[in-house]
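Re-run with default settings, no changes from the original entry. Doing this only to confirm the output is reproducible before filing.
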Amino acid sequence: MTHIIPRFLCIALLWCALCTSGRAQDTIYYQDFETPDEGTLDYSTNVAPYGSGGLPTWNVVSRIKGIETAYSGDSFWAVRDADNALASEPVGRLTFDAGDICRLTSARFVFAYNVIGYDGGDDFGYELYLDGFLHERVILVDGRNGGGVSTDGWVTDTVAVPGTAQTAKLVLYFDQNGDDVAGLDNLQLLATGTNGSCAAVCGIKLGKPKLDCTDFTAAADGVRLTLPYRGAEAGVRVRIDGGTVGGDDPALVQDGKIDVQGLQEGQSYILRVDGGDCALELSLDLPADQCAPSDLVINEVLADPGEDINGDGMINAGDEFVEIYNTGDQTVDVADHTLHDGSNSGPRFIFPDGAVLGPRETFVVFAAGSDQLTASCEYGIASGFLGLNNDSPETVTLRNPAGRVVAQASFDDAPAGESLTLHPDGNSAGGYVPYSSIDPDATSQPCSQVVAAPVELLFFTATPMQDAVRLDWATASEQNNERFVVERSKAGRVFETVGQVPAGDGTYVLVDNTPFPGQNLYRLRQLDFDGAETIYGPISVRLDSGIIRLYPNPVVSKVFLSGELPADQPVTIFRSDGHVMLRTQGTTIDVSHFPAGSYYLRLEGGGGAPQSLRFIKE
């Protein structure tokens, strides 16, 4: 005899089962793909449903090939051949948006899934979004070539929601092609209580700041700040008086790095990260004597060896090296100078008494030695190891006996199997480049091959104007110089030409009339008559004055405006058909009650023509 248990009794039994397994839990929302009832968690799909169990299917069914029954009730969501001609997207996604969950304690999503025969290229997993940002992405089933991957029937998984989150959204995705099958059922949002705090919590945590010298003179030198952060926060701004902020934007980019240029030794600064739910301050008191004048530079760094450099028959961390180069015309006493990596755990190498470095000479510090180690310049062996990072940010520092920095090299990710080097030797204005970019047949050269720079650059600066950037540079000497090409980039990956200037009297100016909003990176490409070239830069400048920015876009709940706007800025929002949706004032606008679609935000006042900004409401 078949016994039919009413659906409400199933839920009650589930509730009792949960009660006996630990702390009491409330089912806040659920979705079991049956008839909607109060408490049902709605879902949306990126692909319109189709099919009823055959090939293909992206829909609610009662059975499908290989899955004869639901996890609970009569129906479940079934996926069969998700990447097909009927689907508008190659990856099918189900989105369960729980909205505001800040009052829930120990909240978690729980769901059941059943996968049959996932092979190479097939994946099933989830993405958890907190406060509008991706928090984690997990593959639960990863298909395998040569044999399908299946679960042991229906299995359950739990996705915890951190207590600081204001909103939560879970996306289940199916990246699958062919006659393989998956099912999803009984998704719930559980919590141990509903009396949690909705107090605003900043979604950003600042890391440990790192200061690097950008100049080495007898006067107050320039200092660059690098500040890692975790998380993100819509509407936040990074500000500092007396410096230029660049790097990642924590209002848009989760887990990044803030970069501040233009700071100076001996000065005090306050970096502010505010807006949204954040009001963070970082006080910076820069030492007056951190950077010392020097003709020494760190010319080449090998952090990720790809060949046996030290001749011991192995390719490992013992093949790392750092090359020091004297760019000046005078011999430098380097006795008791110390070489450090970014761990600040003590010197990796100490130059012996009496050590000197002549004009245009190099000295190489190897991580480890061997009987077969040879070099065409003076060298030494590190004390134990160099310890250079090959896949994360690293700084190599040379200090004089007084502990002041005389040379420094920083990089985010060492290129695999090759060094980073200055080119020509000692050309710090050109920045570090992978060795293969200057010699395709080599990966490193642990003793410099001295090449005279065709241009001795005195300075290269970028100055923000109202809607433009002015580039100035000057040279002390030029040999065989044909012209300069000024290039611009948003993020430092791809550069485009802004303009060209022929060789002249040594003083140059070029104005970029179409810079990017926000950060711009500029570099000089110097070209010889014989086709050789040298790169100087990049340098950074921000152009925020006069530019109005709307973010985030697309938006879930609130849009924010940045730029030169009054606190009571008049704002009108129109639907795409011209219907007025809202008239308000300010630079933070709540659009959470708007239906999904396209809108235009119009700014009025200030004596100029109204300005319109388009955004998408999700």
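Residues 128 and 170 are 5 Å apart (CA to CA). Confidence is low (pLDDT under 50) at residues 1-23.
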